UniProtKB/TrEMBL annotation:
It is a single-pass type II membrane protein. InterPro entries: Exostosin, Exostosin_GT47. One of its GO terms (molecular function) is glycosyltransferase activity. It comes from Vigna mungo (Black gram). GO terms for biological process: glucuronoxylan biosynthetic process. One of its GO terms (cellular component) is Golgi membrane. Belongs to the glycosyltransferase 47 family. This is Exostosin GT47 domain-containing protein. Keywords: Glycosyltransferase, Golgi apparatus, Signal-anchor, Transferase, Transmembrane. The lineage of its organism: Eukaryota, Viridiplantae, Streptophyta, Embryophyta, Tracheophyta. Residues 2-295 form the Exostosin GT47 domain. Its main location: Golgi. It is found in: Golgi apparatus membrane.
C-alpha cells in the first residue's frame, strides 16, 4: 500500500477539532494512521498494489447541530485527485482502479446524509473506478454502493471499550434485559418524504416504554457504554441509514445485538459470524420484539453469548492507531487482498482463453 502524502488541508488540519479522531465517522482517520506505521506500507509506489488517498471529509462539524457536514466532500476529493494525478502517473495508469478512499458516513460514496438527496447526487464520477471503504452497505442494488466497495464498521474508540471492560467483563452479570438509548421521535419527522428510522424507533418507544423488561432512554449519556455492558440484548434499529455504532459497541461489550434494519450488509462477514452472534428482526416485526427475545432467552441465548464473547470477534470490529493482527484495519487489508487475488484469477483466465484461441 502506497499512502499519498497530501498537504495537511486534506487531512491533519482537520484534527484541530479533537472530535475528528473520535466520532463515529472517524474510521477515515484511524485507517490512515494505522497504514502509516503498517508493514504493508511501501514508500516505492512502483511496487504498490494499492494507493491510499487520505482525505478526511467527515471532520467538518456543523455549527448549528454539531453533526458532520459533508457538503464540501466532493470538491475536496476532486482537488485531491487532481493533485495526485498531476504529481504521479499512477492514477492515470489505472484510471483510479487501484486507489482507495474512505467514505465513513451515512450513505457512503454518495456523500450526503439523506438517502433521497444522496441517490439524486449519486457517486462522484471521479470515484467510479476506485475502491471505497464505506460504512453503508445493503444486500440489494443501491446507487450509493454502485462502485467497488468494502463495508467497514463505524468507529468506536478501542480505549473506551477497554476502559468499560475493566469494570464490566463481557461474561459478567447483566441486569438489563433489553437496552436502547438514542433518538426516538414520538412523532418522527418527515423529511423529503421519508420518516426518521422508518418509524421503527417510534414504534419501539410506543410499544415497550412501559414494559419493565425494556430499558429505553431518549437522551444522550456519555457513560452509556456502561449500560451496554450491563445488558443482555442491545437494540440496533436503523436511523436515517441502516447502520449505527451500536452494532460495534454491542459486540465489543458482549451484548447481543438485535439488528432491526432490513437488507443491511454487515462488515467483514467472512470473518465475523454475524448469524451466530446477533439477532435479526424484520422492521415489520418490531412490535413483536418482546416475544422474539423471550424465545431466544429460553432457547439458544447461551450459545449466542458464547460465540459473541470470542475476543477475536471484538478485535475484528475495532480500529487501533497502530494496526494489530486481526483488527479492523487488518480486515480491510484482507478484503483488499481478496480483491487482488480475484483480479489476478480473472486476468489469468483471460490470458488462457486468448492463448487457446
Amino acid at each position: 500500500m502506497f499512502v499519498y502524502e497530501l498537504p495537511p488541508k486534506y487531512n491533519t488540519h482537520w484534527l484541530a477539532n479533537k472530535r475528528c479522531g473520535n466520532h463515529l465517522f472517524a474510521s477515515e482517520v484511524a485507517i490512515h494512521r494505522a497504514l502509516l506505521t503498517s508493514e504493508v506500507r511501501t514508500f516505492d509506489p512502483y511496487e504498490a498494489d494499492f494507493f491510499f488517498v487520505p482525505v478526511y471529509v467527515s471532520c467538518n462539524f456543523s455549527a448549528v447541530n454539531g453533526f458532520p457536514a459533508i457538503g464540501h466532500a466532493r470538491s475536496l476529493i476532486s482537488s485531491a485527485v487532481n493533485l495526485v494525478s498531476t504529481a504521479y502517473p499512477f492514477w492515470n495508469r489505472s484510471k483510479g482502479r487501484d486507489h482507495v478512499f474512505v467514505a465513513s458516513h451515512d450513505f457512503g460514496a454518495c456523500f450526503h446524509s439523506l438517502e433521497d438527496a444522496a441517490i439524486a447526487d449519486g457517486i462522484p464520477q471521479i470515484l467510479r473506478n476506485s475502491i471505497v471503504l464505506q460504512t453503508f452497505g445493503v444486500v440489494h442494488r443501491h446507487p450509493c454502493q454502485d462502485v467497488e466497495n468494502i463495508v467497514i464498521p463505524p468507529y468506536v474508540s478501542p480505549e473506551s471499550v477497554r476502559s468499560t471492560l475493566e469494570n464490566f467483563p463481557v461474561n459478567g452479570p447483566r441486569e438489563i434485559w433489553a437496552f436502547f438509548r438514542g433518538k426516538m421521535e414520538l412523532h418522527p419527522k418527515n423529511i423529503s418524504g421519508r420518516f426518521y428510522s422508518k418509524r421503527v424507533r417510534t414504534e419501539i418507544w410506543r410499544k415497550f416504554n412501559g414494559d419493565r423488561r425494556f430499558y429505553l432512554q431518549r437522551h444522550r449519556f456519555s457513560g452509556y457504554q456502561l449500560e451496554i455492558a450491563r445488558s443482555v440484548f442491545c437494540l440496533c434499529p436503523l436511523g436515517w441509514a441502516p447502520w449505527s455504532p451500536r452494532l460495534v459497541e454491542s459486540v465489543a461489550l458482549g451484548c447481543v445485538p438485535v439488528i432491526i434494519a432490513d437488507g443491511i450488509r454487515l462488515p467483514f462477514s467472512s470473518t465475523v459470524r454475524w448469524s451466530e452472534i446477533s439477532l435479526t428482526v424484520a422492521e415489520r416485526n418490531v412490535g413483536k420484539l418482546g416475544k422474539i427475545l423471550e424465545h431466544v432467552a429460553a432457547t439458544n441465548l447461551s450459545d449466542i453469548q458464547r460465540n459473541l464473547w470470542d475476543p477475536r470477534t471484538r478485535r475484528a470490529l475495532l480500529f487501533n492507531e497502530r494496526m494489530e493482527y486481526g483488527d479492523a484495519t487488518w480486515q480491510v487489508l484482507v478484503s483488499l487482498s481478496e480483491k487482488l487475488h480475484r483480479s489476478y484469477r480473472r486476468s489469468s483466465a483471460s490470458e488462457e482463453l486468448e492463448s487457446d484461441t
